[in-house]
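Request: Have a read of the protein record below and say how the chain folds.
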Amino acid sequence: MKSEAIKTKTDAANPVDKNSILKLLLDVGPLAIFFIMNGRAGIFYATGAFMVATVISLVASRLLFKRIPVIALVTGVFVMVFGALTIWLHDDTFIKIKPTIVNCLFVVILATGLYFRRPLLKLALGEVFKMEEEGWRILTVRWMGFFAVLAVLNEIMWRNFSTDTWVTFKSFGIMPLTFAFMLSQVTLIMRYQIPDAEPEASDAKN
């Protein structure tokens, strides 16, 4: 029993495992393909490649991890819809406004959950983090603010800069910003974290 406890603690102390790296690659892969194809063939071919890569990423996630994250699924649906409109109408405005609409949708979804006192972040992350209800509420409000900021940034970038600059921002700017935001929430999570139950005396002796 003691060896199992040590193994559990070791796993908890080393959250970056093969699965985490795979998930990161599945998230970043379509964006990297989007960036490369835009540089080589232009925004419309890049959009088509982005759509194909997104589908492959979702299928791979389902096969490897037996589930597709809700955010990835919602984003994937919008990639398909707005990507198809971009190619069909030959108008890159659709793929450019997609992030704005998706982020605004996430704000509305999270706000709706708070209104009905069912923080949706808890439903999505409750198995990973154990926090008090107040912690989930604060974290949800912060994520709403972050999604709103991303929507505003996207509008600024695609309306005021070239397509290549927007693609670069989308491919290499959003992910670092998201990681930085997630790291900034560690203190909040630790403050409201519900400690695990103490192991039983019999387990400690073993």
Summary: Confidence is low (pLDDT under 50) at residues 1-16, 197-205.
